[in-house]
Write a sequence for this structure.
């Protein structure tokens, strides 16, 4: 906070933020807490137990659906990253080409379009296609896969486009000057620059796919169903404490990934510092601020 | 080494082989055309069809009737969607709900984004991560958690009863209250993120200059900070408003059973009533309704790209 | 900035001419012509500077030599080979970029090795040549560092090593000193010059800093609006500027316009001066013809006027009032206003100033003298 804020102002600010975080994390905490609740009636606490986790492990329907969701999420993430990065690269590299406005609209629109619209339209198209050319044979993994990818492609394309636009053009020119063909330039220079955008795009696509309800509902088939769809049908029928256990597992998984990433970044810092003989934390300091044994 | 004749043949063929550049542009373009544009054409086509029993549950556009190609297009679905009170109020109500949600998200999100943007850089990153983190956990589970908190035998009522503040449980869900709690909860990050991005980019010396020229803190906010963050406000609002119009899960789980939201109506038409042409027509009308906000959002994105360049 | 011509540096100037030839090169961007029918020729192993202010086309010309732009017309020939349309990765040319453009995700070593790897050089040879190149720029100890961990000067050295390690036929430098602090610029100029001399590579550099060009180049070309204004050694361009632009761009100049006097073609009538300017030789022009002349501030001597104005037929003189004094340490600039309201700048070295019985102060009336030989005809 700036030094010109008064104490009551700072207090008010902290109180507000605390409330907001209470609002955001309250449900998450309640999910975790109640996943260990013995009672069947989820809202009344009796005593701690792992009952629901045990039930989860035997829940064939949930496990099968979970497996499907995982496979779908991986497929979606990889496909979205490839297609999205490709689209983002096109946007950044080619300032003018026929149909560029249409191209950008098709990339920006899905970001805000209500999912029911995307879901219905894809489903109707698939049905029509099936009538016309026989593919896709009913709805299932393939159609859901495509639907999920269409949800995620925009995010990846936009982040990659932003990252590429901000990239120093002279790096590409320097590589060409040193003898790299355009393809080599892409792999040696461009790709490393957008790496972070690709990773975050992958994670985002994975999450969106794993979590998706509406698109999956429209595009799933009689044989295939996803975890969120199973959870939704159960929740509509009434509260199911197993869902708390499932939710807690998700939360723990996310927590592990986030902490793991932070730990990995820290370890990388340490490795770099050690290889240069500098004390920890210094290798990322700007040169001007470091003590100067190397002049 | 190639002989002269193969060289000539090669160069002649080159005219027909698409250049590297064309291939690079065309691949994602075709992908998007097939899986984004084509579906809309499919919806359009089916919105002009009639419902019927069978697979698929709608009449074909072009068919052979008595050995003659006939066009079968009907406006019944559109008539229903546009004239039926039920649909009309569903659209109106959806827009109303989306609007209120947007305003609420703004009311909660703007101060939050502002406060975070004023914290020192290391704190800022951590705070923003803390805001975004819940988004990475299952959305469905979190909405489900709210049921447990808000229902008549839920956490809040339980607490209030025990504290003696109320005698009978107050209805916190299956009504507008539950609906808006759920909506704001889900869409808050979409408001905070663009707002924060704009607020953080603001030049701090502008605030200092205003103060130097005699503006008091609230004046600085009203005349400098607020106007300069306007693009962020628009971006966040559109990001919340447009998808909210078609929201299904939250109204279904937390809202009143008779809450008319167009997302629910379309779902029911599609899955329960198998009235695909009706759902298709409803979709088209919804797209038309949302075209203006979506075009506005597109313009904002383009401006952002120009500024960043 | 007053640049005093420096004594000759160790240089490789004088190699075979026409090693790099720019022939009738034109570059247009839409309606604008950025490079306008430019011709020049660079000698083997010489250091050649393209000098001019922003927008004059020098950077575009450099980029065309690198292959990052293609000429709209004309051609570029290097060591007998027409490279006009060759892509940059096929030219025996390497460039050191203004921003250094070091690849941030690679170490210093890997950066320098990059070009050799693209050539397909054997691993052992790469290691050896990279070590040599880093040794040359004294960055061997930083081989494992990442560019973000280096200072500006260190990054520049790595960028230089990276462009030299491939032993290009032509080395291009894009504003090499622009990103450095003023203090280390001079030292770096000498160091860079020495390295270029040692390596013996033909070098074309672009700069807007005339001092840099004068220090480092064997020959330089002054450019303006896409055209070549003057080409020559630093001494030639400084002492004998071809146009008013050249005179004012390199060093500073007092420029006078006048007409050839009736009856004496060695005298120029100048409305701003009390008496006609005396030239060392008669001009080959009709009486009344318009002439532009310049005289360098350091050629004007200044002395406090004692009331009388000695008039010598064979020297140029005037009276002026001291309006501004710029104390620069090793020299002092006097801005003198003549009765005609014209301001003339005189550069007085410290030694001369200290030897004066009394130094001119604000408002003092002083005598200005300059010899006929100090005048340069510009048109």
């Amino acid at each position: 906070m700036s030094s010109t804020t008064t104490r009551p102002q700072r207090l008010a600010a902290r109180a507000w933020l605390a409330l907001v975080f209470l609002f955001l994390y309250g449900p998450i905490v309640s999910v975790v807490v109640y996943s260990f609740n013995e009672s069947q009636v989820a809202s009344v606490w009796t005593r701690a137990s792992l009952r629901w986790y045990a039930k989860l492990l035997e829940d064939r329907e949930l496990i099968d659906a979970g497996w499907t969701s995982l496979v779908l999420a991986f497929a979606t993430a990889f496909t979205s990253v490839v297609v999205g990065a490709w689209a983002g690269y096109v946007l950044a590299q080619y300032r003018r080409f026929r149909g560029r406005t249409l191209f950008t609209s098709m990339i920006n629109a899905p970001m805000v379009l209500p999912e029911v619209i995307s879901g219905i339209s894809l489903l109707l198209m698939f049905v029509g296609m099936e009538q016309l050319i026989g593919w896709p044979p009913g709805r299932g993994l393939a159609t859901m896969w495509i639907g999920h990818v269409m949800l995620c492609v925009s995010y990846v394309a936009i982040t990659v486009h932003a990252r590429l636009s901000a990239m120093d053009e002279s790096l590409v020119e320097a590589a060409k000057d040193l003898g790299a063909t355009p393809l080599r330039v892409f792999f040696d220079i461009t790709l490393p620059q957008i790496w972070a955008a690709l990773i975050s795009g992958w994670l985002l696509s994975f999450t969106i796919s794993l979590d998706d309800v509406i698109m999956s509902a429209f595009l799933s088939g009689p044989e295939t169903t996803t975890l969120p769809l199973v959870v939704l049908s159960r929740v509509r029928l009434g509260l199911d404490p197993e869902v708390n256990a499932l939710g807690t597992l998700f939360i723990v998984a996310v927590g592990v990934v986030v902490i793991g990433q932070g730990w990995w970044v820290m370890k990388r810092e340490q490795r770099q510092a050690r290889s240069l003989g500098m004390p920890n934390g210094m290798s990322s300091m700007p040169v001007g601020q470091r003590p100067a044994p190397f002049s | 080494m190639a002989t002269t004749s193969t060289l000539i043949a090669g160069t002649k063929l080159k005219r027909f082989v698409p250049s590297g550049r064309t291939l690079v542009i065309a691949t994602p373009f075709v992908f998007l055309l097939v899986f984004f544009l084509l579906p809309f054409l499919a919806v359009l086509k089916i919105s002009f069809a009639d419902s019927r029993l069978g697979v698929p549950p709608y009449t074909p556009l072009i068919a052979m009737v008595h050995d003659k190609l006939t066009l079968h297009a009907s406006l019944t679905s559109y008539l229903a969607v546009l004239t039926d009170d039920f649909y009309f109020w569903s659209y109106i109500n959806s827009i109303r709900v989306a609007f209120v949600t947007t305003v609420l998200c703004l009311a909660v999100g703007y101060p939050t984004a502002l406060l975070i943007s004023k914290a020192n850089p290391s704190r800022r990153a951590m705070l923003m991560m803390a805001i975004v983190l819940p988004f990475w956990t299952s959305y469905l589970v979190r909405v489900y958690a709210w049921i447990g908190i808000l229902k008549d035998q839920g956490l809040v009522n339980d607490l209030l009863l025990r504290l003696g503040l109320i005698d009978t449980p107050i209805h916190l869900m299956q009504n507008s209250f539950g609906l808006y709690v759920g909506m704001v909860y889900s869409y808050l990050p979409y408001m905070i993120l663009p707002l924060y991005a704009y607020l953080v980019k603001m030049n701090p010396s502008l605030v200092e200059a205003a103060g130097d020229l005699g503006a008091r803190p609230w004046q600085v906010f009203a005349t400098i900070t607020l106007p300069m963050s306007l693009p962020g406000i628009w971006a966040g609002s559109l990001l919340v408003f447009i998808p909210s119009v078609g929201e299904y899960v939250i109204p279904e789980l937390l809202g009143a059973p008779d809450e008319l939201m167009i997302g629910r109506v379309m779902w029911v038409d599609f899955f329960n009533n198998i009235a695909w042409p009706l759902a298709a027509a409803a979709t088209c009308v919804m797209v038309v309704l949302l075209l203006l906000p979506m075009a506005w959002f597109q313009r904002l994105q383009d401006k952002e790209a120009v500024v960043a360049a | 900035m007053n640049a005093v011509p420096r004594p000759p540096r160790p240089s490789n100037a004088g190699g075979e001419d026409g090693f790099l030839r720019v022939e009738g090169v034109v570059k247009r961007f839409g309606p604008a012509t950025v490079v306008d029918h430019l011709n020049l020729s660079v000698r083997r192993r010489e250091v050649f500077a393209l000098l001019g202010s922003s927008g004059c086309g020098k950077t575009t010309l450099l980029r065309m030599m690198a292959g990052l732009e293609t000429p709209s017309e004309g051609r570029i020939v290097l060591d007998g080979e027409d490279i006009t349309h060759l892509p940059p990765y096929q030219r025996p040319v390497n460039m050191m970029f203004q921003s250094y453009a070091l690849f941030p995700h690679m170490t210093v070593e890997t950066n320098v090795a990059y070009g050799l790897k693209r050539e397909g050089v054997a691993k052992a040879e790469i290691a050896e040549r990279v070590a040599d190149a880093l040794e040359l720029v004294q960055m061997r100890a930083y081989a494992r560092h990442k560019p973000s961990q280096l200072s500006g000067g260190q990054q520049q050295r790595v960028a230089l090593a990276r462009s030299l390690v491939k032993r290009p036929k032509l080395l291009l430098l894009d504003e090499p000193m622009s990103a450095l602090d003023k203090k280390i610029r001079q030292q770096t100029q000498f160091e860079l010059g020495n390295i270029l001399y040692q390596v013996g590579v033909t070098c074309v550099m672009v700069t807007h800093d005339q001092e840099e060009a004068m220090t480092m180049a064997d020959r330089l070309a002054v450019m303006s609006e896409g055209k070549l204004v003057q080409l020559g050694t630093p001494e030639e361009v400084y002492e004998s500027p071809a146009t008013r632009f050249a005179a004012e761009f390199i060093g500073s100049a007092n420029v006078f316009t006048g007409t050839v006097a009736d009856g004496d073609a060695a005298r120029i009538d100048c409305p701003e001066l009390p008496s006609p300017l005396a030239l060392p030789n008669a001009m080959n022009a009709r009486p009344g013809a318009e002439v532009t002349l310049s005289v360098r501030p350091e050629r004007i001597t200044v002395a406090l006027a004692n009331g009388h104005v000695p008039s010598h037929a064979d020297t140029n003189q005037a009276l002026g009032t001291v309006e501004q004094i710029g104390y620069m340490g090793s020299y002092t600039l006097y801005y003198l206003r003549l009765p005609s309201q014209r301001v003339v700048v005189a550069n007085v070295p410290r030694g001369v100033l200290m030897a004066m019985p009394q130094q001119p102060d604000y408002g003092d009336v002083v005598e200005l003298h300059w010899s006929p030989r100090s005048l340069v005809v510009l048109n």
About this structure: The longest strand of chain C covers residues 316-327. The first helix of chain C runs from residue 58 to 66. Residues 1-7 of chain C have pLDDT under 50 and may be disordered.
